[in-house]
């Protein structure tokens, strides 16, 4: 059945429907990973976005139980060049089971060129090349985080009664981020993004993790001040949206990247070791370099391609954060060691508390 990816400026790219033929407008973005389409579509950070896959064949290994990053796909739609739909576990059928639209047979290279020239541009997959969109989605709306954060605290227990307790501020966390902590023996409590910081404190966290999540980090500006007393004392780690939020809370600023970093092979340099890690990324915003006060922050990681800030460590508070994904699902595991560094920080803090 004929379909079109239609941009808000009216340009239309033809293809055929896959998934559910439903018009859902979203910001059109692109990701360059060769695999991982199931993890990408179920990553809550993509809420409100139509994801274009640059790899030309998508769906070729079906969908696999246990590989999802959440209970369902969250993106507004997908755009692919060719979709392999052989079996019952095929990507198109799976998207349809969740009511998510897609389009295949699209000249995705042309779409990517357009998105690179017009970052942040929105579009819709429609049956008609001239659809009428009532309202284009706004990344500054809180609705994206609201739709994917837990509604009440959820605990992931640990058998070890001495396990470090991580309170995870959930802005739309990926399952593999929680897994990265539980497999290291942590007890994890996910709390909704709006949780009163006093309540967070009463949970007696050893560490705080600020998660990934959808939308513009500035949608969460009203909450930042409340977290500052916590992050001044409790070891805190931020990932992607969480990194942007910690930076905003402690005085830096964020801005939109020209067309985002999305894929599984983004090179990031760690100046302190000279090492380059290949990282998994998915972000449209970044911490503005000129807003980082280097008497307060060390810039721990930089993107090799465009020099943008990819990691920060605070000089006075026990806070560090990265723009890329150390849980890397999909993606290479170069940066996984950051979870060990976080736990090391927590352990040291505990020793000080016991012996200090
Ligand atoms: N993966 C994420 O946490 C994304 C963060 C934010 N929504 C951005 O696009 O920059």
TrEMBL record:
<keyword id="KW-0665">Pyrimidine biosynthesis</keyword>
<feature type="binding site">
    <location>
        <position position="284"/>
    </location>
    <ligand>
        <name>L-glutamine</name>
    </ligand>
</feature>
<comment type="similarity">
    <text>Belongs to the CarA family.</text>
</comment>
<keyword id="KW-0315">Glutamine amidotransferase</keyword>
<dbReference type="GO" id="GO:0004088">
    <property type="term" value="F:carbamoyl-phosphate synthase (glutamine-hydrolyzing) activity"/>
</dbReference>
<feature type="active site">
    <location>
        <position position="327"/>
    </location>
</feature>
<feature type="binding site">
    <location>
        <position position="215"/>
    </location>
    <ligand>
        <name>L-glutamine</name>
    </ligand>
</feature>
<dbReference type="InterPro" id="IPR035686">
    <property type="entry name" value="CPSase_GATase1"/>
</dbReference>
<dbReference type="GO" id="GO:0005524">
    <property type="term" value="F:ATP binding"/>
</dbReference>
<feature type="binding site">
    <location>
        <position position="213"/>
    </location>
    <ligand>
        <name>L-glutamine</name>
    </ligand>
</feature>
<comment type="subunit">
    <text>Composed of two chains; the small (or glutamine) chain promotes the hydrolysis of glutamine to ammonia, which is used by the large (or ammonia) chain to synthesize carbamoyl phosphate. Tetramer of heterodimers (alpha,beta)4.</text>
</comment>
<keyword id="KW-0436">Ligase</keyword>
<dbReference type="InterPro" id="IPR006274">
    <property type="entry name" value="CarbamoylP_synth_ssu"/>
</dbReference>
<feature type="binding site">
    <location>
        <position position="241"/>
    </location>
    <ligand>
        <name>L-glutamine</name>
    </ligand>
</feature>
<dbReference type="GO" id="GO:0044205">
    <property type="term" value="P:'de novo' UMP biosynthetic process"/>
</dbReference>
<keyword id="KW-0547">Nucleotide-binding</keyword>
<comment type="pathway">
    <text>Pyrimidine metabolism; UMP biosynthesis via de novo pathway; (S)-dihydroorotate from bicarbonate: step 1/3.</text>
</comment>
<feature type="binding site">
    <location>
        <position position="244"/>
    </location>
    <ligand>
        <name>L-glutamine</name>
    </ligand>
</feature>
<dbReference type="GO" id="GO:0004359">
    <property type="term" value="F:glutaminase activity"/>
</dbReference>
<feature type="region of interest" description="CPSase">
    <location>
        <begin position="1"/>
        <end position="164"/>
    </location>
</feature>
<feature type="binding site">
    <location>
        <position position="282"/>
    </location>
    <ligand>
        <name>L-glutamine</name>
    </ligand>
</feature>
<dbReference type="InterPro" id="IPR050472">
    <property type="entry name" value="Anth_synth/Amidotransfase"/>
</dbReference>
<dbReference type="Pfam" id="PF00988">
    <property type="entry name" value="CPSase_sm_chain"/>
</dbReference>
<feature type="binding site">
    <location>
        <position position="45"/>
    </location>
    <ligand>
        <name>L-glutamine</name>
    </ligand>
</feature>
<feature type="active site">
    <location>
        <position position="325"/>
    </location>
</feature>
<feature type="domain" description="Carbamoyl-phosphate synthase small subunit N-terminal">
    <location>
        <begin position="1"/>
        <end position="126"/>
    </location>
</feature>
<protein>
    <recommendedName>
        <fullName>Carbamoyl phosphate synthase small chain</fullName>
        <ecNumber>6.3.5.5</ecNumber>
    </recommendedName>
</protein>
<keyword id="KW-0055">Arginine biosynthesis</keyword>
<comment type="function">
    <text>Small subunit of the glutamine-dependent carbamoyl phosphate synthetase (CPSase). CPSase catalyzes the formation of carbamoyl phosphate from the ammonia moiety of glutamine, carbonate, and phosphate donated by ATP, constituting the first step of 2 biosynthetic pathways, one leading to arginine and/or urea and the other to pyrimidine nucleotides. The small subunit (glutamine amidotransferase) binds and cleaves glutamine to supply the large subunit with the substrate ammonia.</text>
</comment>
<keyword id="KW-0067">ATP-binding</keyword>
<dbReference type="InterPro" id="IPR036480">
    <property type="entry name" value="CarbP_synth_ssu_N_sf"/>
</dbReference>
<feature type="active site" description="Nucleophile">
    <location>
        <position position="240"/>
    </location>
</feature>
<feature type="binding site">
    <location>
        <position position="285"/>
    </location>
    <ligand>
        <name>L-glutamine</name>
    </ligand>
</feature>
<dbReference type="GO" id="GO:0006526">
    <property type="term" value="P:L-arginine biosynthetic process"/>
</dbReference>
<dbReference type="Pfam" id="PF00117">
    <property type="entry name" value="GATase"/>
</dbReference>
<comment type="pathway">
    <text>Amino-acid biosynthesis; L-arginine biosynthesis; carbamoyl phosphate from bicarbonate: step 1/1.</text>
</comment>
<keyword id="KW-0028">Amino-acid biosynthesis</keyword>
<dbReference type="GO" id="GO:0006541">
    <property type="term" value="P:glutamine metabolic process"/>
</dbReference>
<dbReference type="GO" id="GO:0006207">
    <property type="term" value="P:'de novo' pyrimidine nucleobase biosynthetic process"/>
</dbReference>
<dbReference type="InterPro" id="IPR002474">
    <property type="entry name" value="CarbamoylP_synth_ssu_N"/>
</dbReference>
<dbReference type="InterPro" id="IPR029062">
    <property type="entry name" value="Class_I_gatase-like"/>
</dbReference>
<dbReference type="InterPro" id="IPR017926">
    <property type="entry name" value="GATASE"/>
</dbReference>
